[in-house]
Design a protein that fits this description.
The protein is an alpha/beta fold. Helices cover about 35% and strands about 25% of the residues. It is built from 25 helices and 35 strands. The structure holds adenosine-5'-diphosphate (ADP) and zinc ion (ZN) (2 copies).
């Protein structure tokens, strides 16, 4: 009987698709295997087999699977369940989840290859560019577009390619290419007829007149431990050449004589060197108590919050819990919000767990991520995976514990594209599938988590003593509104802050200056008329990058050179408005020319090595002042920081979002926690224009509980989490007027089912991106209401909208539990 597979395609499709299996390969396939299938016109995708059956689809003509890629599943049954939960809960498709989950090396890409048409005869003159492309193809009849672009140096080559296609001078060929190639190593062995002891002995005589070859052969025998007819060890060609000092010519001589044979062996990219490990640090009394309480809480509850002040040694407690879990043969997933943190934590964990630790994050080469995935499928998977949010998608054999470090961080939430999941919340679901436990750790819990912990849903353990009982820093507020009025500010710095920086530098201590990123995009403005350059595709002002003297859109990448004069008034003075970290760096260098200054923000940390260098330079005191955004607040552990400057608290507090105060508190408390870790009490200079704001007082007193109580009262009153669950419904369309109408109709339909729980439509902060206009509708559902039902209703309304002839071009997507 004919067999069929239902597959998940890496596309935002609401359902699986059915393909037939070629008859000769039926037995080999299982759910979770990858297959290549044709979809749409001439496109090929890597799909994942969801199920196997014998029901031919009746509503469309079934196509055949092109290739089967895996002999055994790369996706385990629990992962299927997890994918399904993610797609349901976050109102997206399993195809969206698939795209986010797998490293790209496991999703074969179809790269466009163009082919020369040998029968082509031009009946009109070709342009120079067209001729150039054809000349290139004459040399090599099949080329990728990427290659042609490079070789011809033509920009916007697709236009030229398209023109040639229209003239049928070339064809497009879709070729499947495996992006992941296993790395191989050339190894050496004795050719079969040679591989006996007697034969080798006679070879020694024969090679007497080729002493170099003889020496090389002896070296091989030594390295391989050859005995009788067998080598004890495999020998890499490189190693052999190196150790013997022989030239490749000598080596080739032995190959030609039929003595050596070269073969290729697949080797992993993952470094497998054994690492010397050290004993765990013993916990101090406070830590031991907290540890024991966590263990006790997790016997009863699946999730526990460890609320411990900065530098209390939470990481040490995690390390003990990890050691206990792996002793029981369980695996551990350690989640971090940001790769900036992985360097420091990696080192601490490596010291204890050595090669049992695997690290997984997006700035690793894709091939390495593929290997980790493959390794996790085997019995020899890592005992501990340390990673950022995407590591929740890895396969696990027997997960026992998930640690979510800095659980309050909003980078755990994926913003774009779908699935817009929250890795902390998803991790809790993932753990429940394995019967594993979850420990959430932070000095400043998110309000939702704290609420869950104080209402008994999660366990709660508090740790209020810093390790070695170092005091929390002294926080000194400075009223910069008043100072600005009296003209007593130097740029963005109060005298107090500059004085503290100077003192620190004199004492060879370090300084961190923190500037919130949000609300302070560095913009250019015309001094005369106030004109601000905007993106032509998106409703946002362009960000100024001084190094390259260009303006860039952070949404679509649109880039233009800085205009010489204002297009509105022809004024020639463009000023740098707002103050980004770049500006602060310039100013600080002017004020303290002798100081060594580094900047850590999105621009300076595009690569992993850039991150690591900034952090390690600062750790080794090669830098005196570190200027940064959010990134410097994140749990980094430095020893010689005596002063932290918060340049402007107000941008955090005034951000138009119901979480603004919570975040402002968290950020300030975290960044303050970087001061005075090991040697002495640190000082934090907190510059603000709202000196009387309760949040400022709460930060100074480190009064987390009071902040939460105030916020909870407001959240309840205004229908926000944790009392209500929010779903943002986004609508997108090219046509502004049509979108208005769509949004109005959809909001009406939603009101018909959700009543007063619906807000909007309204314009989001950025109301146009990549030529599409955007509207936003907010739905607020009581937390104890059945969410399944709410999701069904939302999907129902969406279907009704799309069935309306007028609204066919509408794009709808959701952000569930937005951050
Ligand atoms: P947290 O994660 O709570 O911010 P850490 O675990 O990073 O705190 O601890 C802060 C510093 O104190 C680190 O440098 C850590 O090595 C040290 N430390 C904490 N607890 C211990 C311990 N029990 N033994 C040795 N060093 C410790
Ligand atoms: Zn743009
Ligand atoms: Zn102007």
């Amino acid at each position: 009987m004919r067999k069929y597979v239902d597959v998940i395609l890496p596309l935002p499709l609401p359902r699986t698709f059915t393909y037939s299996l070629p008859e000769d390969i039926v037995e080999e396939i299982e759910p979770g295997c990858r297959v290549v299938v044709p979809f749409g016109r001439k496109k090929y995708y890597t799909a994942i087999v969801h199920s196997i059956h014998s029901n031919a689809p009746t509503d469309y003509e079934v196509k055949e699977v092109t290739t089967i890629l895996d002999p055994s599943p790369i996706l385990l049954p629990k992962q299927f369940t997890f994918w399904k939960w993610l797609a349901d809960y976050y109102l997206c498709t399993q195809g969206d989840v698939y795209k986010a989950a797998l490293p790209s090396g496991m999703k074969i890409e179809s790269e466009t290859i163009v082919e020369y048409n040998p029968d082509f005869e031009a009946d009109e003159r070709l342009t120079d560019k067209e001729q150039l492309i054809l000349d290139l193809l004459a040399g090599e009849p099949e080329q990728s577009v990427t290659y042609l672009e490079k070789a011809s140096k033509i920009k916007n080559i697709l236009n030229v390619v398209k023109a040639l296609l229209d003239k049928e001078a070339i064809f497009v060929k879709e070729e499947l290419r495996k992006t992941y190639k296993p790395k191989t190593e050339a190894r050496v062995r004795l050719a079969e007829p040679v591989a006996t002891e007697e034969r080798i002995k006679s070879l020694f005589d024969e090679l007497e007149r080729a002493p170099k070859q003889l020496a090389l052969l002896m070296k091989y025998i030594e390295l391989s431990g050859f005995m009788g007819t067998k080598a004890l060890k495999e020998v890499a060609k490189n190693e052999l050449l190196q150790r013997s000092g022989a030239s490749p010519a000598v080596f080739n001589g032995l190959v030609e004589k039929g003595i050596f044979e070269v073969y290729h062996h697949e080797v992993g990219r993952l470094k497998r060197q054994e690492i010397e490990t050290v004993e765990l640090n013993p916990l101090n009394d406070f830590q031991q108590q907290a540890h024991d309480k966590v263990v006790e809480q997790l016997q009863e509850k699946n999730v526990c919050l460890l609320h411990g002040v900065t530098s209390s040694g939470k990481t040490e407690i995690y390390i003990h819990l990890i050691a206990e879990a792996i002793r029981q043969g369980k695996q551990v997933l350690y989640l971090l919000p940001e790769i900036a943190l992985t360097t420091q934590i990696t080192e601490r964990l490596k010291r204890v767990f050595g090669s049992r630790l695997g690290i997984y994050h997006s700035k690793f080469p894709d091939a390495e991520r593929v290997e980790i995935w493959q390794k996790q499928l085997t019995e020899k998977g890592y005992d501990i995976i340390l990673g950022v949010r995407s590591s929740i998608f890895l396969p696990f054999r027997d997960l026992g514990l998930i640690i979510v470090d800095e659980e309050h961080e909003n980078t755990y939430k994926q913003q774009d594209p779908a699935p817009r999941y929250h890795a902390r919340n998803a991790a809790i679901v993932l753990a429940s599938l394995y019967g594993a436990k979850v420990l959430l750790g932070t000095a400043t819990p998110s309000i939702e988590t704290y609420y869950n912990a104080t209402t008994g849903k999660y366990g709660l353990v508090e740790l209020k003593e810093r390790y070695k009982e170092i005091q929390l820093p002294e926080i000194v507020p400075v009223d910069i509104k008043e100072l600005a009025r009296k003209k007593r500010m130097t740029g963005q710095f109060s005298r107090l802050l500059l004085g503290e920086i100077k003192d620190a530098l004199d004492k060879k201590e370090q300084v961190i200056l923190f500037q919130n990123r949000r609300g302070f995009a560095p913009m250019i403005e015309c001094r005369t008329c106030g004109w601000v350059p905007k993106c032509k595709n998106c409703d946002v002002s362009l960000t100024y990058h001084k190094k390259i003297n260009q303006l860039t859109c952070h949404y679509c990448g649109y880039t233009i050179p800085l205009p010489r004069s204002c297009p509105a008034c022809e004024g020639i003075e463009m000023i740098n408005r707002g103050f980004g970290t770049e500006k602060i760096e310039d100013d600080i260098k002017l004020i303290f020319p002798e100081a060594r200054v580094a900047r850590m923000d999105l621009d300076t940390t595009r690569t992993r090595s850039a991150y690591e260098k900034i952090i390690s330079d600062f750790e080794q005191a090669k830098t005196d002042i570190l200027i940064g955004t959010q990134m410097v607040s994140k749990g980094l552990d430095f020893d010689h920081v005596s002063v932290v400057g918060i340049l402007n608290a107000d941008t955090m507090m005034n951000y138009p979002d119901f979480r603004a105060y919570e975040r402002a508190f968290q950020l300030m408390a975290q960044v303050a926690g970087r001061a005075g870790r090991k040697n002495k009490r640190g000082k934090v200079i907190l510059q603000t224009k709202s000196i009387d704001h309760p949040i400022i007082d709460q930060v100074i007193k480190n009064n987390y509980e009071e902040m939460v109580m105030n916020q909870l009262a407001e959240r309840q009153m205004f229908h926000y989490p944790p009392y209500y669950r929010l779903v943002y419904v986004y609508l997108k369309n090219k046509n502004a007027a049509l979108l208005e109408q769509m949004a109005r109709v959809m909001a009406e339909k939603l009101r018909a089912v959700f009543g007063s729980r619906v807000w909007g439509p309204a314009d989001p902060p950025v109301a146009r991106v990549q030529l599409l206009y955007i509207k936003k509708i907010i739905v607020k559902v009581e937390v104890n209401a059945p969410m399944n039902r709410a999701r069904d209703l939302l999907r129902q309304v969406q279907r009704e909208m799309l069935m309306d002839e007028r609204f066919k071009s509408l794009i709808v997507y959701y952000d569930v539990d937005p951050m």
